[in-house]
Amino acid sequence: MDVDQIMIRVAMVCMGNICRSPIAEHVFRGKAKTVGLEVEVASAGTGGWHVGEPADPRSIKVLADHGYTSHHSAQQFDSTWFSRFDFIIVMDDDNFRAVVSQAPDDIAKSKVRSLMDFYTGTASDRIVPDPYYGAAEGFVHVLRLIENASDGLIEFLQENQ
User: Fold this and answer.
1) Active-site annotation holds for 97
2) 14, 19, 56, 58: which is the annotated catalytic residue?
3) For residue 4, what pLDDT is reported?
């Protein structure tokens, strides 16, 4: 690591931490490594239903099919994450509200951003849709949105480091 480079800590958050946020964690980590950005990345869910479980098999498959790592054990977001991470990146408005409701102060609230804030193209919606109840194609769509938004997030972090 370059002495002038600061380790940036990023948390990716969705509802159950088995679909969107694990994909975002692995995509962002892989893309950051490719450009030499020093990051620590983790993911969590706002709910605890899947704590300790691996990612959804369709998430694992889409990651593997596109050259990303996929080892994962679901965990639940709680207020201690505000002190552990510089940025808390959420997948949709419900996640945003759930995370912000746990923020101890305005500084913590300012760490919460939507991943789609960094999307560089035009999207029909400004959220990463939950693919859980859909077909495998939904996971590919989510991966593509996350790849684009991760590129935008990396650009933002490089410009503001």
Assistant:
1) no
2) 14
3) 53
| Active-site residue identified among 19, 20, 29, 58 | 20
Q: Give yes or no: 14 in active site.
A: yes
The CA distance from 122 to 49, in Å, is 33
Report how far residue 156's alpha carbon sits from residue 152's, in angstroms, rounded to the nearest whole number. Answer: 6
- Tokens 């949105």 -> residue: 145
Q: For position 40, what pLDDT does the model report?
A: 97
Kind and range of the H or E run holding 28: helix 20-35
pLDDT digits (tens, 9 = 90+) for 107-147: 999 999 999 999 998 766 789 999 999 999 999 999 999 99
Residue of 117, 114, 119, 118 whose CA lies nearest to 99: 114
Is 144 a residue of the active site?
A: no
Where the chain has pLDDT below 70, the residues are: 1-5, 123-124
CA distance 51 to 81: 16
Catalytic residue among 105, 117, 130, 151: 130
Output the six-digit token pair for 157: 């972090």
> Which residue has 């600061």 as its token pair?
6
Matching residue, tokens 């869910």:
45
